[in-house]
UniProtKB/TrEMBL annotation:
This is Aminopeptidase N. InterPro entries: Aminopeptidase_N-like_N (IPR045357), Aminopeptidase_N-like_N_sf (IPR042097), PepN_Ig-like_sf (IPR038438), Peptidase_M1 (IPR001930), Peptidase_M1_dom (IPR014782), Peptidase_M1_pepN (IPR012779), Peptidase_M1_pepN_C (IPR024601), Peptidase_M1_pepN_C_sf (IPR037144). Residues 81-190 form the Aminopeptidase N-like N-terminal domain. The gene is pepN. The keyword Protease applies. Residues 232-443 form the Peptidase M1 membrane alanine aminopeptidase domain. It is an enzyme of class 3 (hydrolase). It comes from the Bacteria. Belongs to the peptidase M1 family. Residues 448-540 form the Peptidase M1 alanyl aminopeptidase Ig-like fold domain. It comes from Sphingomonas colocasiae. Its EC number is 3.4.11.2. Residues 545-859 form the Peptidase M1 alanyl aminopeptidase C-terminal domain. It catalyses: Release of an N-terminal amino acid, Xaa-|-Yaa- from a peptide, amide or arylamide. Xaa is preferably Ala, but may be most amino acids including Pro (slow action). When a terminal hydrophobic residue is followed by a prolyl residue, the two may be released as an intact Xaa-Pro dipeptide.
Length: 860
């Protein structure tokens, strides 16, 4: 029996097999007698037969055994089919009552009801509700919830659930109870409750139509002072969604709870968002500027789900990008509106390229609307989220902002209260926005990053731009159809630095098309895919001189950044091939950017950064991690030396500032640490002292961690002292200690792998906390040279962690598998080691389907 379970491949769920539910559950009442070791859950379901059939009611469960089952008040025998409870019912409508016992304290998967730091909380998306009680656990079954909780008053003084509070009281024996009701029908993945000793940062927001909403951000008392930034972001988000999308909040209360143990970022449960504490807690001493931005972005994301996800939810999990792609696009727009839109776009594209492009070109590639899965948790991917957002962004570009808004209004009006599909969204875009998106729909069905080759010819006063597109083969999709690619394009005059025409939105729809530009009297320089208007790679063949020119003169900030990146990439790729590169063009371009007074510092800080080693690797057929590292470090050194005066000026210029959270101050800090890194790369004798002075003098975590990173990458005597000081100062703050692990995991030194192996044995390393696992193991997989050490010890380290973690937390374990799936891109020796590592995972007895799916597909 055990063997059969270990070897039988998990069932594959297919999109084409979708059938509407056999039974609906318009109302559910839940009664929780909460206890960390034994919680009694009593549920009362009003069930209604859906359509004309005689199939029984099948309630999903996961590890549950009924304590009692009653149908219309009469106790009944029960039957389990696997994990599901099968209830034959004679009529069209019945009341089904089930009681079960669960043990939150023993729930290490962090799905369902679990304990974290003394509190009890839930995570149900995607299929965690079935670990709490028996239920048709699918997003197209929408119910009105009423929830009663009873618990020990001292241990769990605060009791929260979805919707609005309706009553509370004393239960005697030191216990108390509370009742909450959510008037909006919702799928069970949006159910939530929290019980614990929490305090709230309270505020309020008055909506567009004048309704007052009570806001609460709930944390442990010690963290209360770190919640103001999240509260500010929440109120800004509420106002922004009214102004930009006409979306108003709909309950009397909105609560957020921060928990320390969480499998991902945060969860949009109706009226009760639950967050990984790293996306709530922020103060200058413990959070970097990037952390502040992430807090605001995730608070906005979860809040925006109230409409894009909750009021309109997904019919089935193949439609996940309906809510995630759209909501990521919305949170990106929000963040762009708060500060520098250009820098935000650069960051979003960097994320897409680092996380989604490799996925799209590897064995786990899937369209934003997948066709099949074994475990849906594995499909909360950069493709569904980030490429999904790019697809919405392209529709926004094609329709323009006004027609896009008309289309989203129509979408929300048409599908409010429903479980919708991606197709419903596209139809709303067509009907409300007045466009034909027939061919555009291929973005939902075809995986792979399209490649565009651009050729620009000039003769007389005519320029001809010929564009060819191809979508590479991906697993299960050998042949691809041409896509609709919206490419914002402009031509510049390389001599006078002026534009030669207005910007055009080119729609490339054929495999090959030529676009004509008239009245072009001088040799044009091509600026294409401006703002990264399509998530594609574009080969332009522009030479170093043209790229340097655009990096200094393009009027689209993203295109400027992109030209610089391309110049750097070309230089590095050539250096890897030839052993030694010509760094002159990059140095001059960086010098120009650094000395341009019109540029904002945050932009400069981004523009002068070299592409990551992993991204350089993405450009090559066979990745040579050591050669890439050498080439990149050599370019860093030359940039550091050639521009040492400029770097010192940039570093000193931001020196005396006192902490302030504003776009200008953030930009200054960004550039300051980038400059420090280059001063160190130059090998300056005083670099370590400069870094140490920044480290000890910092009044904020951005400067402190930036300095620590510089020291950690070097070999001065101050290195150990800084690591030790940082550790001692923050050993009781888990989120900051995560940074201590990550900084070492990302070290550029030769001994990074040895350091990581030692840190795995550190008393503060634990598999029980997902943030800590990601801080060490997850971060290390991004250290291309360290992780891909030729002897395979990096792979061995990762496999050990995956296998051990899988026994307690399959979801988080499965997230660590994909880096091993890049084996096709490496030399034969490494590829063999990587495949052996995947093989060791797949052959582990008792593997979860989460990890099995990722590892077996990665071998593919
Ligand atoms: N819906 C949540 C969000 O986008 C994430 C849920 C992730 N669930 C999962 N099984 N990975 O914020
Ligand atoms: Zn989301």
């Amino acid at each position: 029996m055990l063997d059969a379970q270990a070897t039988a491949a998990p069932a594959v769920i297919r999109r084409e097999d979708y059938r509407p539910p056999d039974w609906l559950v318009p109302d559910i009442a839940l009664d929780f007698r909460l206890d960390s070791m034994r919680t009694r859950v009593a549920s009362r379901l009003q069930v209604v037969r859906n359509g004309d059939h005689d199939r029984p009611l099948v309630l999903d469960g996961d590890g549950l055994t009924p304590v009692a089952l009653r149908i219309d008040g009469v106790a009944t025998d029960w039957r389990l089919d696997g994990d599901a409870l099968v209830v034959p019912l004679p009529g069209g409508a019945h009341v089904v009552e089930v009681e079960v016992d669960i043990a939150p304290e023993l729930n290490t998967q962090l799905m369902g009801l679990y304990a974290s730091g003394g509190l009890l909380c839930t995570q149900c998306e995607a299929e965690g509700f079935r670990r709490i009680t028996f239920f048709p656990d699918r997003p197209d079954v929408l119910s009105r919830y009423s929830v009663r909780m009873e618990a020990d008053k001292a241990r769990y003084p605060v009791l929260l659930a979805n919707g609005d509070p309706v009553a509370a009281g004393d239960a005697g024996d030191g216990r108390h109870w509370a009742e909450w009701r959510d008037p909006f029908p919702k799928p069970c993945y949006l159910f939530a409750l929290v019980a614990g000793d929490l305090v709230a940062n309270r505020d309020s927001f008055t909506t567009l139509s004048g309704r007052k909403v009570d806001l609460g951000i709930w944390v442990r008392a010690a963290d209360l002072s770190k919640t103001d930034h999240a509260m500010t972001a929440l109120k800004l988000s509420m106002a922004w969604d009214e102004a930009v999308y006409g979306r108003e909040y709909d309950l009397d209360v909105f609560n957020i709870v921060a928990v320390a143990d969480f499998n991902f970022g945060a969860m949009e449960n109706k009226g009760l968002n639950i967050f990984n504490s790293r996306y709530i807690l922020a103060d200058p001493d413990t959070a970097t500027d990037a952390d502040y931005d992430a807090v605001a972005g995730v608070v906005a994301h979860e809040y925006f789900h109230n409409w894009s996800g909750n009021r309109v939810t997904c019919r089935d999990w193949f439609q996940l990008s309906l809510k995630e792609g759209f909501t990521v696009f919305r949170d990106q727009q929000f963040s762009a509106d708060q500060g520098s839109a250009a820098v935000k776009r650069i960051e979003d594209v960097r994320t897409l390229r680092a996380a989604q492009f490799p996925e799209d070109s590897g064995p786990l590639a899937h369209p934003i609307r997948p066709e099949s899965y074994m475990e849906i948790s594995n499909f909360y991917t950069a493709t569904i989220y980030n490429k999904g957002a790019e697809v919405i962004r392209m529709m926004h570009a094609i329709l323009g902002p006004e027609r896009f808004r008309a289309a989203t209004d129509l979408y929300f009006a048409r599908h409010d209260g429903e479980a919708a599909t991606c197709e419903d969204f596209v139809v709303a875009m067509e009907d409300g926005g007045g466009a034909d998106l027939t061919q555009f729909r291929r973005w939902y069905s075809q995986a792979g990053t399209p490649r565009v080759v651009a050729t620009l010819d000039h003769e007389g006063t005519t320029a001809r731009l010929t564009l060819e597109q191809a979508v590479p083969a991906t697993p299960g999709q050998p042949d691809k159809q041409p896509m609709v690619l919206p490419l914002r394009t402009r031509l510049f005059c390389g001599e006078t630095s002026g534009p030669l025409c207005d910007e055009r939105l080119i729609l490339l729809t054929e495999p090959r098309q030529t676009f004509v530009f008239d009245d072009i009297a001088t040799r044009p320089v091509l600026s294409i895919n401006r703002g990264f208007s399509a998530p594609v790679t574009v080969e332009t063949g522009r030479d170093a001189a043209d790229l340097a020119f655009l990096s200094a003169h393009d009027d689209d900030p993203f295109a400027r950044y992109e030209a610089m990146q391309q110049l750097m990439l070309d230089t590095l790729v050539a250096a890897v091939a030839e052993g030694r590169g010509d760094h002159g063009a990059v140095i001059e371009a960086v010098r120009n950017t650094l000395s341009d007074p019109a540029l904002d510092k945050a932009f400069v800080g981004e523009a002068v950064l070299l592409p990551s080693e992993a991204f350089v690797g993405e450009q090559m057929l066979v990745v040579d991690p050591d050669a890439i590292h050498r080439a990149r470090e050599a370019l860093r050194t030359d940039l550091g030396k050639a521009l040492e005066g400029e770097w010192r000026a940039a570093h000193a210029g931001a020196q005396a500032n006192r902490f302030e959270y504003s776009p200008a101050a953030k930009g200054a800090r960004r550039l300051k640490t980038v400059a420090l890194g280059y001063i160190a790369a130059a090998g300056a004798a005083d670099a370590a002292e400069l870094a140490h002075a920044q480290f000890t003098g910092a009044d904020n975590m951005t400067d402190r961690q930036g300095a620590l990173t510089t020291l950690v990458n070097g070999d001065s005597a101050l290195r150990e002292a800084a690591l030790e000081a940082f550790y001692r100062r923050y050993r009781d703050n888990a989120l900051v200690l995560d940074k201590w692990f990550t900084t070492q995991a990302l070290s550029t030194r030769d001994d990074a792998l040895d350091a990581v192996l030692a840190l795995e044995k550190h008393p503060d390393f634990t598999l029980a906390n997902p943030n800590r696992v990601r801080a060490l193991a997850g971060a290390f997989t991004a250290n291309q040279r360290g992780f891909h050490a030729a002897d395979g010890r990096g792979y061995g380290f990762l496999v050990d962690i995956i296998v051990a973690l899988d026994r307690i937390n399959p979801q988080t374990a499965a997230k660590l598998v994909p880096p091993l799936g890049r084996w096709r891109r490496f030399d034969e020796a490494r590829a063999t080691l990587m495949r052996a590592a995947l093989g060791r995972i797949v052959e582990t007895p008792g593997l979860s389907k989460d990890v099995f799916e990722q590892a077996s597909k990665s071998l593919g």
